[in-house]
Write a structure and sequence with these properties.
Helices cover 27% and strands 25% of the residues. The chain has 254 residues and is of the alpha/beta class. The chain has one domain: Rossmann fold. Bound molecules: zinc ion. Residues 6, 8-9, 11, 18, 20-21 line the site of zinc ion.
């Protein structure tokens, strides 16, 4: 795992202190807390994070959709794809209830779980406290990882909820290394927008085209595929599936 950098100014942190911003980040219950100090400057995040923290504190299992099969099927698929590309170290952006952590626990060497809600992280950490899990509290638009340091990034059903997706994509380009793999799943059959920023309309071909072009510009060759996560199968047409998957690699896909 690389050393952390300041998510605001990208200076290397010394014992979680940024000498440039003169801001001290901290650790809480084994979670490294690297939210930007003026989180309210990142628009509606502050209130949203507080809302999710309350959900997690008041019994996340009630909201976790454990009765649903879709998160399990997505997590299983991610596990399979990682095995295909022989990936053993993952950065998981937006961990939510920890489905990915559950699926990868026995197959991966190291998983860095990254989420803006510390209460969700604690909820998942209780299930997976081992050394191979690293827990970091931060936002997708300001990643505390050095340039070219991440070999694989998973972003499961998170992308559509990120406030500033363009900032996240720039960060994705910055932190991923030369041969990096990205796995992004985007739900598009739900009743979006559920949250104010859920504006990414995956059904709009123009928006998808822009995303595809940008990922290409930052060096990724991508496949876009559609999946019916209830049936656990790839489908030809998006009208038959509920998830769009972006599988990208910074080298020729094999
Ligand atoms: Zn700084």
């Amino acid at each position: 795992m690389p050393d952390f950098i300041c998510p605001v100014c990208h200076t290397e942190l010394i014992n979680l202190y940024c000498p440039k911003c003169e801001h001290r980040y901290y650790e809480e219950d084994g979670v490294t807390c690297l939210l930007p100090p003026k989180i309210n400057e990142y628009s509606s995040y502050y209130f949203e994070i507080q809302r999710y923290n309350e959900i997690a504190k008041n019994g996340a299992e009630k909201y976790s959709g454990l009765e649903e099969t879709r998160p399990f099927s997505r997590a299983r698929l991610i596990n399979e794809l990682l095995a295909t590309y022989d990936i053993k170290e993952v950065l998981n952006i937006g961990i939510g209830f920890g489905f990915i952590e559950d699926a990868l626990h026995y197959t991966i060497d190291k998983c860095t779980s990254y989420d803006p809600c510390i209460e969700f992280i604690k909820y998942v950490k209780e299930r997976h406290p081992s050394d191979k899990h690293i827990y970091v509290n931060g936002i997708a638009e300001a990643l505390p990882f050095p340039d070219n340091s991440i070999g694989c990034m998973v972003c499961d059903s998170t992308f559509q909820s990120i406030n500033n997706r363009m900032s996240f994509l720039y960060e994705l380009g910055r932190v991923t290394c030369d041969k990096a793999l990205i796995l992004i799943s985007i739900g598009y059959l739900w009743n979006y927008p559920r949250k104010p920023q859920d504006g990414f309309n995956i059904k709009n071909p123009e928006e998808l085209k822009t995303l595809r072009r940008f990922l290409k510009e930052i060096g990724f060759e991508i496949q876009i595929r559609y999946r019916d996560s209830n049936e656990d199968a790839w489908v030809d047409k998006k009208s038959e599936g509920d998830y769009l998957w972006i599988i990208g690699k910074k080298e020729t896909l094999q």
